[in-house]
From TrEMBL:
GO terms, biological process: 'de novo' pyrimidine nucleobase biosynthetic process; 'de novo' UMP biosynthetic process
GO cellular component assignments: cytosol
GO terms for MF: orotidine-5'-phosphate decarboxylase activity
Species this protein is from: freshwater metagenome
Catalytic activity, EC: 4.1.1.23
CDD domains listed in its UniProt record: OMP_decarboxylase_like
Pathway: Pyrimidine metabolism; UMP biosynthesis via de novo pathway; UMP from orotate: step 2/2
Gene3D superfamilies reported in the protein's UniProt record: Aldolase class I
Name under which the protein is recorded: Orotidine 5'-phosphate decarboxylase
InterPro entries (UniProt xref): Aldolase_TIM (IPR013785), OMPdecase (IPR014732), OMPdecase_AS (IPR018089), OMPdeCOase_dom (IPR001754), RibuloseP-bd_barrel (IPR011060)
Enzyme class: lyase
Keywords: Decarboxylase, Lyase, Pyrimidine biosynthesis
Orotidine 5'-phosphate decarboxylase domain sequence ranges: 20-233
Amino acid sequence: MSVETGDEFVDGAPDAIRARLALALDFDDIVEALRVARVMRPWFGVAKVGLELFSAAGPEAIEALIDEGYSVFADLKLLDIPTTVNKAARVMGSLGATYLTVHARAGVDHLAAGVEGFATGATMAGLALPICLGITVLTSEQADPGSLESRVRFAVEAGCGGVVCAASDLGAVRALGPDLLTVVPGIRPAGVGADDQARPATPQEAVTAGAGLLVIGRAVTHASDPVLAASGIARAVSSAS
Ligand code: C5P
């Protein structure tokens, strides 16, 4: 239950704000990941499981985070032949993940295989339709604007529910796919170091530019006071919305 009293957001964020905040649990240890997830639950509605945690704990990580009340974002960045992507996506759907990432650069067939598999897995398990996300341009990649455009078009054509993109690409993405959910990593409150993020944005900048879901990792998990950092980000998202 969120509390919006005199000291707004200190005890938690409203559900509408939590639903837009994804906590990146970039740990190689399920015990540590769950400890952080439990502390951060009042501010985050989505838990992101990346390759590191999935390599360490596999499906157990997905199931444990669902049990904690999170929507799970399986950030596996799938890139393989369409049949393999389809089957892996089906497994993730059946496990109850709400979001799954697939690389958009591989093209429409590949993305469509992910969309179909993810939906089928969820449907077979009696779960709500999940959202397959196309990864547009990694911040470590040297990609031209043409690549961004073609990848967003692939995602739309394949039936992806959203894309992952940098805040600086939100204008172009929204023009090409106005109905796509936009998922934005690289969030850094003013004054917090960028680490290895090449194109960071503040929470306010990302929301103002149209971000749907903000991915927050080290700005909270490496903060000297993670609760203070989380409440500040939730407050910033609320005031910019
Ligand atoms: O930087 P932060 O810890 O907030 O990272 C959150 C997520 O952003 C990571 O889990 C990763 O998926 C993504 N990331 C990225 N580009 C980088 C570094 C991380 O998109 N250079």
